[in-house]
Every structure is written in structure tokens, then in C-alpha cells.
Write a structure and sequence with these properties.
Length: 336
């Protein structure tokens, strides 16, 4: 069994492979690099085979989606740990060793991420990962280095390794057996917040998630859906509610869910005025989906839970950000 494999999921991403695969191949040795192809039609496989014969290829005949592609691939890969790495990530020298060393030294750690910076502005954190992810009391996600649309410069203010609530799916180190035992990524999420859901399950099962900023990578980001698209609004609001319903203990869900729905309706008005009525409609569709599929979502709660010390902001990040002016992660009081 290999110690670690670097796994990139590709769908018609030859351009990204041409740009970013060279750094992955150069700086990942001696670990195995695997490209999982989701039925591409742009000659991605031919490009890899011709230029990087040392890269292994797992080719599916159809597009299984982000979650489905990784779920099926990780059943076939024989490694103790895997890195789920987006194809639009540039890695740096020695990016694996600091994280892998920590995973091997402390078996309670089941998932981790490096510091994730913006490829287009390398002095700034990247939106969907930064230096580790958190959620607030109502399960709104944010990061060390990014709250809502405020993205901080990296001045090494978050360079300490510590427990985090979730690690970014753009560069996710994870214990493969834990991934499989917990059912992998929830394919009903399709895209957005699927890694938060998985990390919540890791904490609930007694594992830990950490950030190791001594490793750094650079992510282009925004490749799945542009933030201006109503589809992204739909997925964010649908998956945000699913995340809460699936994972929050019943005693807390009873009051948090109605409050979260109320805040979504406030957001509906804000999005409709600022981004257009199609975004308000997207939020309505997200809520309708939850109503129609509530039974199946609730069924996913049927697993044992344990008390954890998952690092979580027990306030409301919306209130802190918009009403109290706390724009930076360091402004929040989060016990760790």
C-alpha cells in the first residue's frame, strides 16, 4: 500500500492540466499522482499519456460529478492517505511533507489542508480555503483569512497549525479508510459545502481536522460556477440548509433551522435587490428542494454521534460582520 496518492479529478480540463500538472508532478515525488477522468471529450487523457507517462489515469466513461467521481475513485486507490487536489491548483516545493508528517504523527487527525492562497494574487488568501475553515452557530461557513467577501492579505497572521472545523476540498488531505467508512462526499450536494459536510462527520465520529500552514498552495478558484450565476446561489442556500439538517443535534436543530430559514428570507430580499430577481427565485427553489427531500435528508442523520471539541464560532457571523463591523477572522473570539 502506498502512503499517499495525489488525486486530481478532471472533466474537460486539459487547459488546467497543461498549466498546473507540471508543478504537481515535479513537487509530489516520490508520491503517486493519479488523474481521475470523468468522461472528458477534450483529449485530456491523450495529453497526460503523451507528456506525463508517470501519472496514473483512472478513466470513467461518463461524468460522475465531483462527489461521485472521487467516491468511486477512492474505492480503487490503494493508499493510506489521499490528497483531493483541484486541477487549478499550483503546488509549491515541499507542499506534502509538513501535512503528511503531522497526519502520521497524530492518528487522531483524519483530514487536513495547507494554507491556500490566491493564484492570481499570491499575497492574499483564497476565498474557499484560506488558512482553514469554520462555521458559526447557524452553520454559516467562513475561513481564517476570509469572512463573506472580505479576503485578507497573508501577513503570516494565521501561520500556526491548529484544529479547524473544515478543510477545503480544493486541497484536502484525508485518511482514505476514514473517507470510505463515513461514506465519502455526499453526492446529493453536487457542488459546494460537500467537504464541510464530510469534515463535520469526521468530527462527529471522533476524528480531528487541522490546517498546516507550513505548506502552501495557490488556487485559481471559481471554476465550478461563477458567483454571479443563480445556480450557485441555489446550491449555496440548498446545501447550507442540508448541512445543518444532516449534522446539527436535534435539540439545537429545533430552534436553529427556523431561524436559519428566516435569515434566508431576509437574504432573498437582499439578493433580489442587489443581484437580480433570478437570485431570489434561486433561494425559493432551494427551499422547495429541502421541503420535497426533507425525509431523505433526515434519514442521513441516522448514525451515532459523539461529543467533540470541534472548533466552532458560537456566535452569529452575520451579526458580527454586518452589524458589529468584525471583518477579519482575528476580530472573532473562537476558542481552539
Amino acid at each position: 500500500m502506498n502512503t499517499l496518492s495525489v488525486v486530481l479529478l478532471n472533466f474537460n480540463g486539459r487547459n488546467h492540466l497543461e498549466s498546473f500538472l507540471p508543478s504537481v508532478v515535479e513537487y509530489s515525488a516520490p508520491h503517486k499522482v493519479i488523474v481521475v477522468d470523468n468522461g472528458s471529450s477534450d483529449e485530456s487523457i491523450e495529453f497526460i499519456a503523451s507528456n506525463y507517462p508517470q501519472v496514473s489515469i483512472i478513466a470513467f466513461e461518463e461524468n460522475l460529478g465531483f462527489c461521485g467521481g472521487y467516491n468511486k475513485a477512492l474505492e480503487l486507490i490503494d493508499s493510506e492517505y489521499v490528497v483531493l487536489l483541484n486541477t487549478d491548483v499550483e503546488v509549491s516545493k515541499n507542499w506534502i511533507a509538513p501535512v503528511l508528517d503531522q497526519l502520521k504523527a497524530d492518528k487522531s487527525i483524519k483530514a487536513a489542508q495547507p494554507k491556500i492562497l490566491d493564484f492570481k494574487a499570491k499575497h492574499k488568501f483564497e476565498y474557499a480555503g484560506a488558512s482553514g475553515g469554520y462555521i458559526d452557530s447557524l452553520a454559516y461557513p467562513f475561513c481564517r483569512g476570509r469572512i463573506f467577501q472580505t479576503i485578507e492579505k497573508d501577513n503570516k497572521q494565521y501561520d500556526d497549525s491548529q484544529d479547524i472545523f473544515w478543510a477545503s476540498g480544493s486541497c484536502l488531505f484525508i485518511h482514505r479508510e476514514t473517507y470510505l467508512e463515513l461514506g465519502g462526499l455526499d453526492e446529493d450536494f453536487f457542488a459546494h459545502m460537500e467537504e464541510i459536510d464530510l469534515c463535520w462527520r469526521i468530527w462527529s465520529s471522533g476524528g480531528r481536522v487541522v490546517v498546516i500552514p507550513q505548506s502552501a498552495v495557490y488556487h485559481v478558484g471559481g471554476g465550478t460556477l461563477d458567483k454571479s450565476k443563480p445556480k450557485k446561489t441555489y446550491l449555496n442556500f440548498r446545501n447550507g440548509l442540508s448541512l445543518l439538517i444532516k449534522n446539527e443535534p436535534s435539540s439545537k436543530l429545533a430552534w436553529k433551522l427556523p431561524l436559519r430559514i428566516l435569515l434566508d428570507w431576509v437574504a432573498l430580499l437582499k439578493f433580489s435587490l442587489e443581484s437580480g430577481p433570478q437570485h431570489g427565485v434561486a433561494i425559493l427553489k432551494a427551499h422547495l428542494h429541502i421541503v420535497v427531500h426533507l425525509r431523505s435528508i433526515l434519514q442521513k442523520r441516522k448514525r451515532p454521534k459523539v461529543n467533540t471539541n470541534a472548533p466552532r464560532y458560537h456566535g452569529w457571523v452575520i451579526w458580527s460582520y454586518f452589524m458589529r463591523g468584525k471583518k477579519k477572522f482575528s476580530d472573532l473570539k473562537i476558542a481552539n
